[in-house]
Amino acid sequence: MASVGQELLNVPLPDMVVKLALGIAEAQRALDENSVETAKALADTKIPLVLAVTQVIAADGSVSFTNAAPVEVSLLQIGLLPTFYQFAEATIEVTMDIKTTTSIETNIKVSAKAKVGFACWSASVAVDVSHNRKFGKEVRGTSRLVTRMVPVPPPARIAPELILVDNRPAAPVPPPP
Q1: How far is Cα 53 from Cα 109, in angstroms, rounded to an integer?
Q2: What is the pLDDT of residue 149?
Q3: Confidence at residue 8, expressed as pLDDT on a 0 to 100 scale
Q4: How far lies 95's CA from each of 9, 11, 102, in Å?
Q5: Is residue 150 left, alpha or beta, with left meaning phi > 0 and alpha meaning psi from -120 to 50?
Q6: Cα–Cα distance for residue pair 135/100, rounded to 1 Å
Q7: What local confidence, expressed as pLDDT, does residue 153 receive?
Q8: pLDDT at site 13
Q9: Which one, of 40, 48, 50, lies nearest residue 76 by Cα?
Q10: Which terminus of the chain has a smaller tally of CB atoms within 10 A, N or C?
Q11: Which H helix or E strand runs over 32?
Q12: Residue 117: left (phi > 0), alpha (psi -120 to 50), or beta?
Protein backbone atom coordinates (compact mmCIF):
# COMPACT_ATOMS: atom_id res chain seq x y z
CA MET A 1 0.00 0.00 0.00
CA ALA A 2 1.46 3.35 -1.06
CA SER A 3 2.06 5.94 1.60
CA VAL A 4 0.41 9.35 1.60
CA GLY A 5 3.75 10.92 0.70
CA GLN A 6 4.10 8.60 -2.29
CA GLU A 7 0.59 9.53 -3.46
CA LEU A 8 1.57 13.19 -3.42
CA LEU A 9 4.79 12.44 -5.32
CA ASN A 10 2.76 10.68 -8.00
CA VAL A 11 0.99 13.94 -8.91
CA PRO A 12 2.63 15.02 -12.20
CA LEU A 13 2.96 18.68 -11.22
CA PRO A 14 6.00 19.37 -13.45
CA ASP A 15 4.11 17.93 -16.40
CA MET A 16 1.10 20.11 -15.60
CA VAL A 17 3.31 23.23 -15.41
CA VAL A 18 4.98 22.43 -18.74
CA LYS A 19 1.64 21.76 -20.42
CA LEU A 20 0.23 25.00 -19.02
CA ALA A 21 3.21 27.01 -20.28
CA LEU A 22 3.07 25.42 -23.75
CA GLY A 23 -0.69 25.94 -23.89
CA ILE A 24 -0.29 29.61 -23.01
CA ALA A 25 2.47 30.05 -25.61
CA GLU A 26 0.27 28.45 -28.29
CA ALA A 27 -2.74 30.54 -27.27
CA GLN A 28 -0.61 33.72 -27.24
CA ARG A 29 0.63 32.97 -30.75
CA ALA A 30 -2.96 32.46 -31.93
CA LEU A 31 -4.03 35.75 -30.32
CA ASP A 32 -1.11 37.60 -31.96
CA GLU A 33 -1.86 36.07 -35.37
CA ASN A 34 -5.50 37.13 -34.99
CA SER A 35 -4.44 40.70 -34.18
CA VAL A 36 -2.11 40.77 -37.22
CA GLU A 37 -4.92 39.50 -39.47
CA THR A 38 -7.19 42.20 -38.06
CA ALA A 39 -4.51 44.84 -38.77
CA LYS A 40 -4.23 43.60 -42.38
CA ALA A 41 -8.00 43.77 -42.81
CA LEU A 42 -8.08 47.30 -41.38
CA ALA A 43 -5.24 48.37 -43.71
CA ASP A 44 -6.90 46.78 -46.76
CA THR A 45 -10.37 48.23 -46.15
CA LYS A 46 -10.60 51.64 -47.82
CA ILE A 47 -13.33 54.18 -47.38
CA PRO A 48 -13.85 57.62 -48.97
CA LEU A 49 -13.19 60.34 -46.42
CA VAL A 50 -13.59 64.09 -46.71
CA LEU A 51 -10.53 65.46 -44.98
CA ALA A 52 -11.58 69.10 -44.86
CA VAL A 53 -14.70 71.20 -44.85
CA THR A 54 -14.37 74.96 -45.27
CA GLN A 55 -16.92 77.16 -43.57
CA VAL A 56 -17.19 80.67 -44.97
CA ILE A 57 -19.08 83.43 -43.19
CA ALA A 58 -19.85 86.24 -45.61
CA ALA A 59 -19.99 89.92 -44.70
CA ASP A 60 -23.78 89.77 -44.76
CA GLY A 61 -23.70 86.93 -42.16
CA SER A 62 -24.60 84.12 -44.53
CA VAL A 63 -22.70 80.85 -44.06
CA SER A 64 -21.56 78.48 -46.79
CA PHE A 65 -19.62 75.24 -46.74
CA THR A 66 -17.22 73.83 -49.27
CA ASN A 67 -16.04 70.23 -49.07
CA ALA A 68 -12.66 69.07 -50.19
CA ALA A 69 -12.70 66.15 -52.58
CA PRO A 70 -12.95 62.79 -50.77
CA VAL A 71 -9.82 60.66 -50.63
CA GLU A 72 -9.53 56.92 -50.10
CA VAL A 73 -8.06 56.07 -46.70
CA SER A 74 -7.76 52.80 -44.84
CA LEU A 75 -9.52 52.11 -41.58
CA LEU A 76 -6.05 51.86 -40.04
CA GLN A 77 -5.25 55.39 -41.25
CA ILE A 78 -8.33 56.83 -39.59
CA GLY A 79 -7.36 55.35 -36.25
CA LEU A 80 -9.05 51.95 -35.98
CA LEU A 81 -6.44 49.65 -34.45
CA PRO A 82 -6.53 45.93 -33.69
CA THR A 83 -6.67 44.85 -30.07
CA PHE A 84 -3.72 42.89 -28.75
CA TYR A 85 -3.90 40.66 -25.68
CA GLN A 86 -1.36 39.00 -23.46
CA PHE A 87 -1.61 36.48 -20.67
CA ALA A 88 -0.88 38.32 -17.44
CA GLU A 89 -1.21 35.46 -15.00
CA ALA A 90 -1.64 31.70 -14.89
CA THR A 91 -2.34 29.58 -11.82
CA ILE A 92 -2.49 25.84 -11.30
CA GLU A 93 -4.17 24.75 -8.11
CA VAL A 94 -4.19 21.09 -7.15
CA THR A 95 -5.94 19.79 -4.06
CA MET A 96 -5.74 16.19 -2.96
CA ASP A 97 -7.38 14.55 0.01
CA ILE A 98 -6.13 11.11 0.94
CA LYS A 99 -7.82 9.15 3.68
CA THR A 100 -6.47 5.79 4.78
CA THR A 101 -8.25 3.65 7.35
CA THR A 102 -7.23 0.40 8.98
CA SER A 103 -9.36 -1.55 11.38
CA ILE A 104 -8.68 -4.84 13.11
CA GLU A 105 -11.52 -6.81 14.53
CA THR A 106 -10.88 -9.77 16.82
CA ASN A 107 -13.67 -12.02 18.06
CA ILE A 108 -13.08 -14.57 20.81
CA LYS A 109 -15.81 -17.03 21.60
CA VAL A 110 -15.34 -19.28 24.63
CA SER A 111 -17.65 -22.08 25.56
CA ALA A 112 -17.13 -24.51 28.43
CA LYS A 113 -18.85 -27.72 29.39
CA ALA A 114 -18.31 -29.58 32.64
CA LYS A 115 -19.68 -32.86 33.89
CA VAL A 116 -19.44 -33.80 37.48
CA GLY A 117 -20.18 -37.29 38.67
CA PHE A 118 -19.19 -39.66 41.52
CA ALA A 119 -15.37 -39.59 41.77
CA CYS A 120 -14.83 -38.43 38.20
CA TRP A 121 -15.30 -35.27 36.32
CA SER A 122 -14.63 -34.01 32.87
CA ALA A 123 -14.46 -30.61 31.27
CA SER A 124 -14.09 -29.32 27.75
CA VAL A 125 -13.29 -25.79 26.74
CA ALA A 126 -13.68 -24.59 23.16
CA VAL A 127 -12.05 -21.38 22.04
CA ASP A 128 -12.93 -19.93 18.66
CA VAL A 129 -10.75 -17.00 17.61
CA SER A 130 -11.33 -15.12 14.39
CA HIS A 131 -9.44 -12.12 13.07
CA ASN A 132 -10.75 -9.72 10.49
CA ARG A 133 -8.53 -6.98 9.14
CA LYS A 134 -9.95 -4.25 6.93
CA PHE A 135 -8.10 -1.66 4.91
CA GLY A 136 -9.70 1.28 3.25
CA LYS A 137 -8.29 4.05 1.12
CA GLU A 138 -10.20 6.99 -0.23
CA VAL A 139 -8.57 9.50 -2.54
CA ARG A 140 -10.22 12.66 -3.78
CA GLY A 141 -8.55 15.26 -5.93
CA THR A 142 -9.50 18.44 -7.68
CA SER A 143 -7.53 20.71 -9.94
CA ARG A 144 -8.23 24.17 -11.21
CA LEU A 145 -6.55 26.17 -13.94
CA VAL A 146 -6.98 29.93 -13.99
CA THR A 147 -5.59 32.32 -16.59
CA ARG A 148 -6.04 36.06 -16.89
CA MET A 149 -5.69 37.94 -20.16
CA VAL A 150 -5.38 41.69 -20.43
CA PRO A 151 -5.50 43.96 -23.47
CA VAL A 152 -2.25 45.74 -24.27
CA PRO A 153 -1.61 48.69 -26.56
CA PRO A 154 -0.78 47.83 -30.15
CA PRO A 155 2.85 48.16 -31.22
CA ALA A 156 3.78 51.83 -31.56
CA ARG A 157 4.66 51.55 -35.25
CA ILE A 158 1.34 49.99 -36.31
CA ALA A 159 -0.45 53.36 -36.36
CA PRO A 160 0.59 55.49 -39.33
CA GLU A 161 2.25 58.79 -38.62
CA LEU A 162 0.35 61.79 -39.94
CA ILE A 163 2.59 64.19 -41.82
CA LEU A 164 1.02 67.51 -42.76
CA VAL A 165 2.48 69.47 -45.65
CA ASP A 166 0.90 72.90 -46.04
CA ASN A 167 2.01 74.57 -49.28
CA ARG A 168 -0.38 77.49 -49.01
CA PRO A 169 1.24 80.88 -49.04
CA ALA A 170 1.42 82.45 -45.65
CA ALA A 171 -1.13 85.17 -44.99
CA PRO A 172 0.49 88.59 -44.93
CA VAL A 173 1.12 89.87 -41.46
CA PRO A 174 -0.33 93.33 -40.93
CA PRO A 175 2.23 95.94 -39.92
CA PRO A 176 2.18 96.98 -36.30
CA PRO A 177 0.23 100.20 -35.58
Answers
A1: 110
A2: 86
A3: 54
A4: 13, 10, 23
A5: beta
A6: 8
A7: 82
A8: 73
A9: 40
A10: C
A11: helix 13-44
A12: beta
- For the chain, what is the radius of gyration of the CA atoms? 44
Q: What is the pTM of this model?
A: 0.52
DSSP 8-state symbol, 76? T
Distances (CA, A) of 29 to 3, 15, 73, 150: 42, 21, 29, 15
The CA distance from 61 to 63, in Å, is 6
Mean pLDDT by 10 residues, the chain (177 residues): 56 77 91 94 92 86 86 89 88 72 72 59 62 70 79 74 72 77
Task: Give how far Cα 104 sits from Cα of 98, 107, 160, 167, Å.
Answer: 20, 10, 80, 102
Q: Report the alpha-carbon distance of residue 24 to residue 151 in Å, rounded.
A: 15
**CA nearest 160: which of 46, 68, 81?**
81
CB 31 within 8 A of CB 42: no
Helix locations, 45-88, DSSP H:
none
